[in-house]
Amino acid sequence: MDGGICLRGSLRGSPVVNTVLIAIGTALASWMGTTGAAMLLIRPILRANQWRTHRIHVVVFFIFLVANIGGSLTPLGDPPLFLGFLKGIDFFWTMALFPVMLPVVILLLIVFFIFDTVMFRKEGTPPDDGEKEPLRLQGIWNFLLIVGIIGAILWSKSLADGPFKDHSIAEKMAPQIKTAEEKMNATKEKLETYVKGHEDDTTIKFDKSNHEYYELRGNHLHAVAEVNSLRAQKTHDENRGISIFGVTVPYFNLMRDGLLLLIAIISLLYTPMYKTVKDEHGHNFPEPSQLDTNVRAANGFTWEPILEVAKLFIGIFICMIPALKILQAGIDGSLSTIVLAVQTTTNDPVNAMYFWLTGVLSSFLDNAPTYVVFFNTAGGDPTSLMGPMAHTLLAISCGAVFMGANTYIGNAPNFMVKAIAEENGFGFKVALVPFHQWAPDVYEGAPTSIAAFISAGPKAAGFAAFLRIFMDALQNLQSEWIILITILAALTMTVGNLVAIAQRNIKRMLAYSSIAHAGYVLVALAAANKDGISSAMFYLFVYCVMNIGAFGAVILARTEDGESLMISDYAGLGFKKPLLALFMTIMLLSLAGFPPTAGFIGKFYIFRSAVESGQIWLVIIGAINTAISAFYYLRVVVAMYMREPEVELDFLAYPRLLIVALTLAAIGVVLIGILPSYFLSPAQISTFRFKTKGGTFMIYLAVLAFGAALGLPIAVIFASTAQGKATSTALEGIARQPEAAPRIQTAMIIGLALIESLVIYSLLIFFLLMGKLPEGQMLQSMIEADAQKQIQYSDLQKRTIMKKLSWLFLLIIIVTLIVPTSGFAAEASSEDKGLLAQIGIDFQTIILQALGFLVVLLVLWKFVFGRVGGLLEERQQEITSRMEKLEADQRELDRLNAETRQRLNEIETEGQAKIQAAIDEGNAERQRILDQARQEASVELERARTEIQREKDEAILELRGTVAEIAIDAASKIIGQTLDAEKHQHIIDESISRLPTQNV
């Protein structure tokens, strides 16, 4: 349908016309889709701006507003919202995005109008197209078909709740869903109880060694998944449909798709396709005869952009499926840290992380499936997401829709607009390698003052978001993303520097230089440690000052014909405009990283953090790239001081405000290089700092000493050889007649500078590596005066620090505001040749810039500063409470230690007493047993004696009888006579009297 609607008539691409067209497209995008609105208006806006030289920004803002942000209000606007509609989100719920969308759209339209106005003033006189053709729409009845599409979608939704719905399924599954919900609530209660009892444990969220906590959390997540699965099954079973290849397609979907197909056929029948012819490149174009009669031919409608998008997104979806499956695995997957990052310790949503992660992943995995993944991660229940979790759904929707504009693959209309723009001769390319190609074109086409701002501000803000996401949300995934960041850092440094060598336009050279500097910041990010973060932030500050200063110097180099953009235009500038050449030299030397400038200190901190984390090979690549960059930076310096100009140029007078700004920037670059600790310690940039008269100057002296130690012997040896003498003679001849061999002279000077740069950074790496070796500990301790010390500040020191920070921010504000403002004034074309025009001051432009800045400042104050300040205050309160809690815990720990020691002493004393009592008791028991044994032995002995006496007496009596009988018998035999009783008794008594009387 969109291809069957054509806007005809004479359109001139002025700021007002372009702003109105983009505003109309933004308003239409929510009702006819971002793709439809983009396809409807991209060709008219391209035709209107075909005559302009500076036009790329029109396509950029068109993509942001029409192809992305404009589709925020209805499911028809953008595919992610339509997928949410298919999952049960109400059609008009997305109107909740209106309060977020409106200020963004207004702000972008204002910025576009201002930017396009500045660019429009640089254009020449518009060509005369002859008679003006009134504006009119052809194929307007296709709008009715678009209304029919909206009606078909709404009608199909009503059918889903009507005759095609099996209402008995809800009753059957209600008990099962209720049981699952009770289980979910019970697991949630257990998890909250556990977390409440461990509030002091700040690492509980990502500590997977805490099996008890992760089991409770996993139980709750699985219970939530079970509820969502049952609800999805209920929805699936309720919708009557037909099975196609094992997949049940609801009847209302078939009817809707059938109506949509019928509407498309009707549109093609009444606005048919056209006959095409091929040009010399093989591209299809409509026959000239059909341009007036066929709407699609006049609209330039072709299938190539659609086919190109289809081929690209087939590959994207194939490569994207594994990544999305890993995310869908949730807490059990290898990317569980991402899932945990969007939830609190009790599985409640963190809306800010939902926005950032949905947006970042939408930029590279396409926003529609990424939306579905985080929609399901948030529970997947449309009733809950439209109710108590409405802000979560809002964050997911804004992240998918708004940040899908970041890349061509983030949203399908982006690539289609790009394809159509290139098809119409707009050289619009995709920015960090491999997304870097837009930067040189934008830098070259934009006014230098605007290029100065976009080279610094957006880069700093982007890397701030980079650091926040990778070092906070994805901190536990370092092992997975460090490899990617390391590769990107190496590629970005190398590609940026190598391509910059081939540039002859100084703005394009600075553009590729900016790409290379993004690689240096990535080196700090790849270090993934505290020093890496601090060095990245410090380098971003340094980069902003020196890069804006370089662009400011380009603004100063103006003639009546405009800016001097070719490097050859700077020949002899050091003698004609010594102040301008001095500014440019300072900035270029700092960008190249020569001491004593801020660029050298910034690179030193970055390389140091990388060495400390083991990224030695990345530091070597960085040092080599730094040496490469010295070539094209010094090429400009050589041209300024050692070249005669090919054409005499009459440079304009310096704008005073710009001179003030560049003076401050130059002083800042040199001061930071000489006194880095003054700028580092106030912002707490690093965990270590250099003493002004200690470590920093020791580095410089050591570098110079090693350079002299290496360079002087080589020079002496070289000069002593015959080849060396011949070369010296030739060089002297070149020096006497520089015009005879300017290329050789340039090559010689730049070659010496390259050698010096390589020596400096080789020695720098040597110093850094020495700190990791046992032999280098003494050297390291000399260089790092206060290494690895946490900075503690008193109240007085804090006030001093805030005063320093105020001066730093004032410097940044002056440089970043006065350079663009003065640049506008210098670039303004005016017929007035009065005093103000001669000195380059245009108060109207300055006031406009100031008002614009105040508007942006008010918007930021209203919508950003308060929230950021609140977050910082909450963070400060949280840190303070943690410190107080730690101090209280320390005091409690000391008290418990004292009690423990006292208790141990008491236990020891008590134990010794018990041991002694046990010993005494044992001795007493032993004595009692011995006494009892003796007593029992005495009783037994007495009893034995009595028994022996009794047995003895019995034995004597028996013996007496026996003896008597024997004696009588013996006596009778002896005496030979019979003994009577009296004789017998007499013999016995006599015998007994002779027996012994002692006891046996």
Structure description:
The structure is a single chain. With 1000 residues, the chain is mainly alpha-helical. It folds into 4 domains: 2-139 and 303-423, no CATH class; 168-238; 438-841, no CATH class; 858-994. The chain is 72% helix and 2% strand. The protein has a two-stranded antiparallel ribbon. A two-stranded antiparallel sheet has the order 3-4. Helix 20 (506-527) packs antiparallel against helix 21 (530-556).
Short description:
The chain is an all-alpha fold and 1000 residues long.
**Beta strands, count:** 8
| Number of helices, counting only DSSP H or I runs of 4 residues or more | 35
Total domain count:
4
The biggest beta sheet reads: 2 strands, antiparallel
Mean pLDDT across every amino acid position: 68
SS strand fraction: under 5%
Poorly predicted regions? 427-438, 682-843
Main sheet strand line-up: 1-2
Radius of gyration: 47 Å
Distance between the termini: 146 Å
Please state the overall shape, judged from the principal axes of the Cα atoms: elongated
**Would you tell me the structural class of the helices and strands?**
mainly alpha
Helix content: over 70%
